[in-house]
Amino acid sequence: MATLLDDPMERLQDEVSCSICLEYLKDPVTIDCGHNFCQACISDFCKRGAGSATGAALCPQCRTGFLLSSCRPNKQLANIVEGIERLARRPSQGLVEALCEKHGKKLRLFCQDDGEPICLVCDKSREHRKHSVLPLEEAAHDYKMKLQEAADILRKMLAEARNLEAQEEEKTSQWKEKVEKHRALIKSGFERRRQAMAEEERLLLKHLQEEELGTLKKLEMNWAFLLGQCAGLQNLILEMEQKCQEPAVSLLKDVKKTLSRSEGISLKEPQPILIELQDSYDVPGLMESFQRYNASVTFDPETANPYLLLSDDLLSVQVVDQKQDLPKSLSRFETCTCLMGREQFTSGKHYWVVCVDHKSSWTLGVCNESVSRQGIFTPSPAIGFWTVWLRNGDEYAALTSPLTELVLRSSPKLIGIFLDYEAGEVSFYNGDTGSHIFTFSDSFSETLRPYFYPGIQAGGLNDAPLVIQPAKDQSSLSLLTSETSSYH
């Protein structure tokens, strides 16, 4: 084994190194606790930790709180650093070299089999005669390269981990934003129900809060998990970088163990979390309040695809195998098996209900009068459609760009559609329970018409018709005195 005398120069270099970047202090500043850092390093540290350049943060070394604005430039320390840098660049003089404990000779070689420096006498001995031996500096150079390569790999892993951490933070922000929007929507609905609805509002907000806290807890666990990975990687990188700064003998001591630790590390991704709300809530009396806006909607046969069969009262439509013998028309959807309603809306509030019982596929909503009716298309607001669909019996989505998946507590048999033209809103409800499904917010400038797509037959699984519910006699209804249009 070899022994080295402590190097005062090394200790001095450590004292004037920044614990954040591990380099010599550049434009050193002193914080409240007395520790010194590069001005740029501590500023970046504060921005990442506190979110602003003037916020409070904890000292990276002793965890004492400080303000970035209270940092003091240390010109005297800057002069000392400059002097040490000049000394470090001079050739070493008078350094005590390590000697072999067995033979008292200078350590000139490195035994790769035993992983230790040896002298020329050791190399000739029977113990090392058949071992693989390299010059000490060459071995140190080789292992330094390996350490640097391992550190580079770990840096990439750290960057990926930080990217994942940032993604989780963004998800948390998006989640909180969605929760706030949802909370505002719920509150606005209950403001017009006053004391009679107070208990219902309280229960819904409690449910939302539980959902919010449950998901936030999962997100925070992911964040903490990634933070732990980052800390572990940073510590290992720091250890390797410090190892690279050591003299050859000290660097080569246990170097294989250090490398094996880095090789055994792999980046683990956090638990996947669905950032979607259970987007439904019930407001008693809401459906009754819509009745004042009942629209007598019927299907428009002039727009119906030839494979659609309409009832005589124009309230029912289904897909058939036999193509209908219909005249060619620019008004007709020639490729997609869909159609419009006869009614045209240019202002006001309108509500209608469609029965979708026993259907596994459909699309409902409104569209611009001017939409193209030729060729295949996917409805979206960008081309003048505001619609919701069902696919494969249980996959609900709002046709935004991209799709917005919808999670419903139950499969509705009735779909209520509420159009508020001036507000630029199209809202969808479970007509059985009054649960809100989705609301489009846009601005309308064209004539709007109801839009219907009964789906494909799917081998008999989707044979049931779409049926428009007839508008009820408004005179027989006990209407609520307060409007609910602001609720949507």
Automatic annotation (TrEMBL):
GO molecular function annotation: zinc ion binding
Domain spans labelled B box-type: 95-136
Annotated coiled-coil segments of the chain: 144-178
Matches recorded under InterPro entries: B30.2/SPRY, B30.2/SPRY_sf, Butyrophylin_SPRY, ConA-like_dom_sf, PRY, SPRY_dom, TRIM/RBCC, Znf_B-box
Domain RING-type: 18-63
Role noted for this protein: Neurotoxin that produces dose-dependent hypolocomotion and hyperalgesia in mice. May directly act on the central nervous system, as it is 6500-fold more potent when administered intracerebroventricularly than intraperitoneal.
Family per similarity comment: Belongs to the ohanin/vespryn family.
PANTHER family: E3 UBIQUITIN-PROTEIN LIGASE TRIM (PTHR24103)
Protein name: E3 ubiquitin-protein ligase TRIM58-like
Encoding gene per record: LOC103063288
